[in-house]
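Before the break, one more example. Copy the sequence into your notebook; we will annotate it together after we see the structure.
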Amino acid sequence: MSNRLHSGHYIYQAKTGWMALTSYSYDHAAQSFSENPRDIHNDTTLNVAQKDRVWREMFLDWVLAHPTDYAAQMPSKLAKTYISDNVNICVFLKNKSERPYLYEELSLSRLLKDFPRYTFAQFLALLNLLIYYAILVLSLLSLCHFRCQSHLLPLAVILLGTLLLLFAGHGEARFHIPFMPFFILLAASFFSSFPKGDRE
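Here is what the structure looks like once it is written out:
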């Protein structure tokens, strides 16, 4: 109701999706947009829903004009989505409001550079990465060990969700988090395949 009173629209979800997708595509494009997507004419007179429509139209116009350029961004999106799992570790960082880039201390390049003198947050990030990569490896081993049809549901969620991100999202590590329960299911099934010893 508050959004309705202030903007004239019922806004019940974030309205930054098209802006983020447009901005990411602009920053990673071989050929640039005709105008910077962060700048919208009459910016002060448009509400969030109207801006969202402008960004959507701007993005769709660019994709239709440059489909191969957009497709070329997908491998990078895939890598950025699954390369790291340190987003949630930011809660342990100090002085968050003073940092120009919140994730820098927890990035892979910074972890390599600072080794072995880690802050507490970096130590947690490294431990978390080891667990994350172990889950991914065990998931792959599970798919190799079993026939894929026995793991159809978790595999379908991961594959379809990842494809959706590649086509209608931009590459960020936080986007793989909804798929982690399904990776954990696959990893756990690998352990369950081993024969159990005699139990009394």
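Residues 70 and 108 are 26 Å apart (CA to CA). Residues 120-145 form the longest helix (26 residues). Try to locate both features in your own notes.
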